[in-house]
Structure formats: structure tokens, C-alpha cells
Amino acid sequence: MAINKKFKENIEKFNMLNYKDRIIAAVSGGADSIFLLENLNELKEEYNLEIIVAHVNHGVRDTAKRDEDFVIKRAKELNLKCEVLHVNMDEYAIEHKISSEEAGRFLRYNFFRSLASKNSKIFLAHNANDQAETVLFRIIRGTGIEGLSAMDFIDRDLYRPMLNIKRDEIEEYIEENNINFVQDETNFEDIYSRNKLRLNVIPYIEDNFNENFTDSLIRLSQISKSNFKFVNKITRDLFLKNYKDNKLYIKNLKDLDEYILSEIVREFLKNEINTLEGISSKNISDVVLLIQKAVNSKINLPGDLNLILSYDYIYLAREIGKVEIEEQVLNLGKNKTHFGNIYVAKSNLYRADDNMISIDANKIKGNLKIRNRRDGDKFMPFGMNKYKKLKNFFIDEKIDRYKRDLVPIIYDDEEIIWVVPYRTSEKYIIDKNTKEIINISLEVKDEGN
To answer: Is residue 125 marked as binding?
Structure first.
């Protein structure tokens, strides 16, 4: 069987594969995921790949067992290992008060990442039509230029080699090569938001307004991605040039274009509180207006935060001792927390940057957890041989009092492991006796469209 030309071009263009990579291939059994699996298998020998087929039985369809059996059988025929997860996404959605779509996505990605040890790569079968639907869905919900960029070919540990391959191209390849797949009947039922767009909205627009509407949405995504990268570089540079000691100096910013200024404000808030969750577009507009008027004042923001304009800079303040963020257990994979997404992964590689640490897995006692500071907290900072009160550490590091309640504290059943992102504990460092590594990273969350 010949590999799909576009698929291979994408693999090479984005440098998606290295020799002896370990691949987690998300396979539902449908045409898209089987296209992904068959093409990855065509590259198996060339790259000496270890491919693990990952299938999730969501427990909501009578034919789910048929799909599971099909995927297991095909993996066996290709001599590939297959891992299966059984869940009930509807029950999970009710329990966690989220939509079934959100529940299914969370459960799938959590499962894929639980398999992703040894620096694995997770390959997903999102195609060009999925990209178009994502753009339209975000337009309907309300989004900015970053949201219009939609999905990336590579996003951290996620790889999407089919983003520019349309559904009819996939079906043509499947038919030409006489490849079997299973059909998810719910794809033809308008019971989910995505399905309603796919089955009703997009066909209506193509029939009545623009027969190339899907292509238009894809182009919009590509243009938005390029524009966002350009704008983001400008705003990030301006932010860094005018930011010092937790203050954003506005003298050189207040006369900027309103959009550029709003993006700088978003950078400032993300830098100060790690997340834009709960911060609305109106909040951003209010801050922009405050800067433009340059009159000493303050704005109340969600989370008991006050943004204060004083002379020629703005800064954030809050009531001291007012916030206590409840502890949360961290599991392998992606963890949604108050502070943003926390990723926990087993690895054989040491990694460290501004928002990531590597620690000795065998030194962890009990569960990994996250919260903010508590009275009496202490830990042994990296490079020291004695404990230090967290309060004194904050003072020495010149961390403003109003910001201390927003600092994530990652710890186990006995003591603090990481004061994020400032310092790791000496007691959890990797040494010559380390046999297993745990990587922990913080992904700053941005939901302030």
C-alpha cells in the first residue's frame, strides 16, 4: 500500500518523526483514524517506530463493542500493541457538570497521556474539515484572533499530520486501497454541537451562500495563525520592554492602537495571575480605557483582584490572607486546575525551563497535589541543606505580597516539591540513583476571548 502523499509531506515538513519514536495512535475505528493508523504503519519500518494503538470505548452506543473489537483485530493484524479504555462519558459529564463532548475529550486525552511515557508522541486524526468546524464553532461562541487559529499540526505532545487533508481525500484513499473501517452512527445524528455544524449549518451555507465555505474557514484559520504569531511577537516585545517588578509602565503604551494595547494587557494579566480564566473581554476593555485616560484609579477584577493605576504604571493587588485555594490531587496526564493546566508525565529525560521541572519519581510520597500557600509552610529550596519558611522565601525572592496567594504549590503527602515557578525542593532532585523521572509542567491558561 502506498502512503498518502500529503500525509508524508506533513510528517517531513513539520519534522514529526524521529528514528525509534514511540507513537500513541488514537484510533476510534472510523475512516479518519484508520487512515492515520494505516499511514503511520507505512512509516513504521523506515523510522523503526513503536506504535501503540489507543482506543476509548465511551460506553454510550450499542455498537461501541463492535468498534472496539474491530480496532483490536486490526492492531493485531498489523502486529501492533493495542490499549483500550472503558468509560461512560455521559455519566462523567453529569458528575462533573460538563457537556458530553467535553467529558469525552477530557477522558480520551487523559488516557492517551497516561500511555505516553518515554517521551511518546500522541498522533490524532483531526482533518481539514475538523479544522473548519473548529473555526466556525469558535466564531459562534465568540473568539479573538488566537481562537481563529484553531488547531496546530504540533501542539506540545499532540501531533496532527492530517490537518490539511480533507474528508473526501481520506475517503478516496480508503476506497482505493480497499481498507475496512467502522462507521460511528452518532456522526449522522445532530445530538452534539459539532454534529449540528457538520450536518446542518455548513451544508446549508455551502448550498446557499458559498460552495467553498469549508475552504474559506481553513484559509481563515491559516491567515489568523500567521497574524497571531506576528501580533504576539510585537505585543510580547512591548510588554517585556515596559514590565518591571510586577508593574506595567504605561508611558510608552497608552497611545498605542487599542487592539495592540489590549493584547499587552492580556500578557500582563497572564504573567501576574497565570490564567485569564474568568477575565472577560469587557474586563480587558476596561483596563485599556483606564490606561488610555491615565487617571489614577482602580478596576475590580474577578477573584477579588484590584487593578490599580498609580502615576505611570499599573499593578495588581488583593486583600492579604483572603484567598485559600482548595487542594487538588494531580494525576498523570493533563490536570485542569485553578492555576492553569498542569501536565504530569513519566519520562526518561531530564527537562527544566521556566514552567517545567524534572524530579525523582521514587522520592514522591503518596499523591501529588496542588494548592496555594498555607500558614507555616516550609520547604528545602534547591541548593540548600536546611528548611526555609515559605514566607521568608517569598520575601527573599521579592515576590509581592498580593501575588503570593496566587503562587501554585505542588507537594506530596509529606512536604512541598515545587514553588511554581520559582524553586524546586532539594529533596526531590534527580541524582545518580534515579531510576524514574517525573516531569511536571504548567501551561498558562487563557480563556479571556
So the answer is: no
Q: Please check whether residue 76 lies inside any domain of the structure.
A: yes
Our separate counts of H helices and E strands in the chain read: 16, 22
Q: Residue 159, SS3?
A: strand
User: How do the pLDDT tens digits run along the chain, 449 residues long?
Assistant: 889 999 999 999 999 999 999 999 999 999 999 999 999 999 999 999 999 999 999 877 778 899 999 999 999 999 999 999 998 888 888 887 778 878 888 889 889 988 886 678 999 999 999 999 989 988 887 777 877 888 889 988 899 999 999 999 999 999 999 999 998 666 656 656 777 888 889 889 989 999 999 899 999 998 998 898 898 899 999 999 999 988 899 999 989 999 999 999 988 988 888 766 667 778 888 899 989 887 667 788 876 788 888 768 888 876 544 567 889 999 999 998 888 889 999 887 787 777 889 999 999 999 999 999 998 999 999 988 899 999 999 888 877 666 788 889 999 999 999 999 899 999 999 888 888 999 999 875 544 33
The verdict on whether residue 33 carries a ligand-binding annotation is yes
> Looking at residue 420, which CATH number applies to its domain?
3.50.40.10
* 190 annotated binding-site participant: no
Answer whether residue 231 is part of any domain: no
32 is in an annotated binding site: yes
Structural domain range at position 305: 242-318
Number of folded domains in the chain?
A: 3
DSSP state of 445: B
Q: Judge whether 233 lies within some domain.
A: no
Q: Is residue 30 annotated as involved in ligand binding?
A: yes
State yes or no: 303 annotated in a binding site.
Answer: no
Cell of 370: 496542588
- Is omega for the bond preceding 302 within 30 degrees of 0, making it cis? no
Rg (CA), the chain: 24
Q: 394, 406 in Cβ contact below 8 A? A: no
pTM for the predicted model, two decimal places: 0.60
